Protein backbone atom coordinates (compact mmCIF):
# COMPACT_ATOMS: atom_id res chain seq x y z
CA UNK A 1 0.00 0.00 0.00
CA UNK A 2 1.67 3.22 -1.18
CA UNK A 3 2.04 5.49 1.82
CA UNK A 4 2.65 9.19 2.42
CA UNK A 5 4.05 10.08 5.83
CA UNK A 6 3.63 13.69 6.99
CA UNK A 7 5.59 15.05 9.94
CA UNK A 8 5.62 18.40 11.69
CA UNK A 9 8.18 17.34 14.30
CA UNK A 10 7.62 18.80 17.75
CA UNK A 11 6.06 21.97 16.37
CA UNK A 12 2.52 23.10 15.64
CA UNK A 13 1.86 23.41 11.90
CA UNK A 14 -1.92 23.15 11.54
CA UNK A 15 -1.82 24.78 8.10
CA UNK A 16 0.12 21.80 6.74
CA UNK A 17 -2.24 19.26 8.34
CA UNK A 18 -5.28 21.17 7.10
CA UNK A 19 -3.90 21.45 3.56
CA UNK A 20 -2.72 17.84 3.21
CA UNK A 21 -6.11 16.53 4.38
CA UNK A 22 -8.11 18.83 2.10
CA UNK A 23 -10.23 17.03 -0.48
CA UNK A 24 -8.14 18.54 -3.30
CA UNK A 25 -4.83 17.31 -1.83
CA UNK A 26 -6.24 13.85 -1.01
CA UNK A 27 -7.65 13.49 -4.55
CA UNK A 28 -4.24 14.50 -5.93
CA UNK A 29 -2.48 11.91 -3.75
CA UNK A 30 -4.95 9.24 -4.88
CA UNK A 31 -4.35 10.19 -8.52
CA UNK A 32 -0.60 9.74 -7.86
CA UNK A 33 -1.29 6.20 -6.61
CA UNK A 34 -1.03 6.78 -2.85
CA UNK A 35 -3.53 4.85 -0.72
CA UNK A 36 -2.47 5.64 2.85
CA UNK A 37 -1.76 8.92 4.64
CA UNK A 38 -0.03 8.87 8.03
CA UNK A 39 0.13 12.16 9.93
CA UNK A 40 2.37 13.11 12.83
CA UNK A 41 0.68 16.31 13.99
CA UNK A 42 2.86 17.36 16.94
CA UNK A 43 1.50 20.12 19.17
CA UNK A 44 -1.08 21.31 16.68
CA UNK A 45 -4.73 21.74 17.50
CA UNK A 46 -5.79 19.41 14.66
CA UNK A 47 -5.87 15.64 15.07
CA UNK A 48 -7.85 14.30 12.10
CA UNK A 49 -9.83 11.12 12.65
CA UNK A 50 -9.64 8.13 10.33
CA UNK A 51 -12.93 8.77 8.55
CA UNK A 52 -12.30 12.49 7.95
CA UNK A 53 -10.59 11.79 4.60
CA UNK A 54 -12.73 9.62 2.37
CA UNK A 55 -11.00 7.64 -0.36
CA UNK A 56 -7.67 7.30 1.48
CA UNK A 57 -6.67 5.37 4.59
CA UNK A 58 -5.82 7.97 7.23
CA UNK A 59 -3.91 7.54 10.48
CA UNK A 60 -2.87 10.38 12.78
CA UNK A 61 -0.90 10.69 16.00
CA UNK A 62 0.80 13.45 17.95
CA UNK A 63 4.14 11.97 19.06
CA UNK A 64 6.05 8.69 19.22
CA UNK A 65 9.42 7.89 20.72
CA UNK A 66 10.66 7.46 17.15
CA UNK A 67 9.21 8.05 13.70
CA UNK A 68 11.99 6.05 12.01
CA UNK A 69 9.65 3.14 11.23
CA UNK A 70 7.01 5.48 9.76
CA UNK A 71 9.66 7.03 7.52
CA UNK A 72 10.97 3.59 6.53
CA UNK A 73 7.47 2.44 5.49
CA UNK A 74 6.72 5.61 3.53
CA UNK A 75 6.94 5.95 -0.23
CA UNK A 76 6.92 9.74 0.16
CA UNK A 77 7.72 11.90 3.19
CA UNK A 78 6.18 15.35 3.51
CA UNK A 79 7.78 17.36 6.27
CA UNK A 80 8.02 20.76 7.82
CA UNK A 81 11.42 22.32 7.13
CA UNK A 82 13.03 21.50 10.46
CA UNK A 83 16.62 20.35 10.02
CA UNK A 84 16.17 17.19 12.11
CA UNK A 85 13.09 16.04 10.22
CA UNK A 86 14.68 16.77 6.84
CA UNK A 87 17.90 14.93 7.66
CA UNK A 88 16.07 11.93 9.10
CA UNK A 89 14.05 11.47 5.90
CA UNK A 90 17.02 12.14 3.60
CA UNK A 91 19.30 9.77 5.54
CA UNK A 92 16.60 7.09 5.17
CA UNK A 93 16.77 7.57 1.38
CA UNK A 94 13.14 8.63 1.08
CA UNK A 95 11.74 11.10 -1.47
CA UNK A 96 11.07 14.28 0.48
CA UNK A 97 8.72 17.19 -0.06
CA UNK A 98 9.34 19.97 2.44
CA UNK A 99 6.56 22.42 3.24
CA UNK A 100 8.00 25.69 4.48
CA UNK A 101 5.97 27.56 7.07
CA UNK A 102 6.02 31.01 5.48
CA UNK A 103 4.36 32.50 8.57
CA UNK A 104 7.57 32.21 10.57
CA UNK A 105 9.75 35.28 11.00
CA UNK A 106 13.49 35.13 10.11
CA UNK A 107 12.80 31.86 8.36
CA UNK A 108 16.00 29.81 8.35
CA UNK A 109 13.87 26.85 7.30
CA UNK A 110 13.40 28.40 3.86
CA UNK A 111 17.18 28.73 3.49
CA UNK A 112 17.68 25.06 4.39
CA UNK A 113 14.94 23.86 2.03
CA UNK A 114 16.17 26.06 -0.82
CA UNK A 115 19.75 24.80 -0.49
CA UNK A 116 18.77 21.13 -0.30
CA UNK A 117 16.49 21.70 -3.29
CA UNK A 118 19.31 23.40 -5.24
CA UNK A 119 21.39 20.29 -4.52
CA UNK A 120 18.49 18.14 -5.90
CA UNK A 121 17.86 16.32 -2.60
CA UNK A 122 14.26 17.42 -2.07
CA UNK A 123 11.33 19.38 -3.41
CA UNK A 124 9.79 22.21 -1.44
CA UNK A 125 6.73 24.43 -1.40
CA UNK A 126 4.47 26.36 0.94
CA UNK A 127 0.99 25.42 2.13
CA UNK A 128 -0.56 27.59 -0.56
CA UNK A 129 1.30 25.71 -3.32
CA UNK A 130 1.18 22.21 -1.77
CA UNK A 131 -1.57 20.68 -3.93
CA UNK A 132 -0.09 22.05 -7.15
CA UNK A 133 3.34 20.76 -6.14
CA UNK A 134 1.87 17.31 -5.43
CA UNK A 135 0.16 17.39 -8.81
CA UNK A 136 3.31 18.30 -10.78
CA UNK A 137 6.15 16.81 -8.72
CA UNK A 138 8.72 14.61 -10.42
CA UNK A 139 10.46 12.56 -7.75
CA UNK A 140 12.80 11.02 -10.32
CA UNK A 141 14.90 14.22 -10.37
CA UNK A 142 15.92 13.79 -6.74
CA UNK A 143 19.49 12.76 -5.96
CA UNK A 144 20.53 10.68 -2.93
CA UNK A 145 21.73 12.61 0.08
CA UNK A 146 25.15 11.32 1.00
CA UNK A 147 25.98 11.25 4.70
CA UNK A 148 28.62 13.65 5.93
CA UNK A 149 32.23 12.69 6.28
CA UNK A 150 33.16 13.93 9.74
CA UNK A 151 36.81 12.80 9.56
CA UNK A 152 37.38 14.72 6.34
CA UNK A 153 35.65 17.77 7.78
CA UNK A 154 37.65 17.53 11.03
CA UNK A 155 40.91 17.28 9.06
CA UNK A 156 39.90 20.36 7.07
CA UNK A 157 39.16 22.29 10.27
CA UNK A 158 42.43 21.17 11.85
CA UNK A 159 44.35 22.38 8.80
CA UNK A 160 42.40 25.65 8.60
CA UNK A 161 42.96 26.35 12.29
CA UNK A 162 46.59 25.25 12.30
CA UNK A 163 45.96 22.30 14.63
CA UNK A 164 47.95 19.12 14.09
UniProtKB/TrEMBL annotation:
Transmembrane segments: none annotated. It comes from the Eukaryota. Its main location: endoplasmic reticulum. SUPFAM superfamilies: UDP-Glycosyltransferase/glycogen phosphorylase. It is found in: Endoplasmic reticulum. One of its GO terms (cellular component) is endoplasmic reticulum. Keywords: Endoplasmic reticulum, Glycosyltransferase, Transferase. InterPro entries: Alg13-like (IPR039042), Glyco_trans_28_C (IPR007235). Residues 3-143 form the Glycosyl transferase family 28 C-terminal domain. The keyword NADP does not apply. One of its GO terms (biological process) is dolichol-linked oligosaccharide biosynthetic process. Coiled coil: none annotated. GO terms for molecular function: N-acetylglucosaminyldiphosphodolichol N-acetylglucosaminyltransferase activity. Its EC number is 2.4.1.141. Signal peptide: none annotated. Belongs to the glycosyltransferase 28 family. This is UDP-N-acetylglucosamine transferase subunit ALG13.
Amino acid sequence: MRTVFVTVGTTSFDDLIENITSSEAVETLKAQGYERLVLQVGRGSLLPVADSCPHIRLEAFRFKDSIAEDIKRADLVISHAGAGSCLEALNAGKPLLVVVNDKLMNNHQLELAAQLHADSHLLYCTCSTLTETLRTMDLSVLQPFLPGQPKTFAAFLDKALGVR
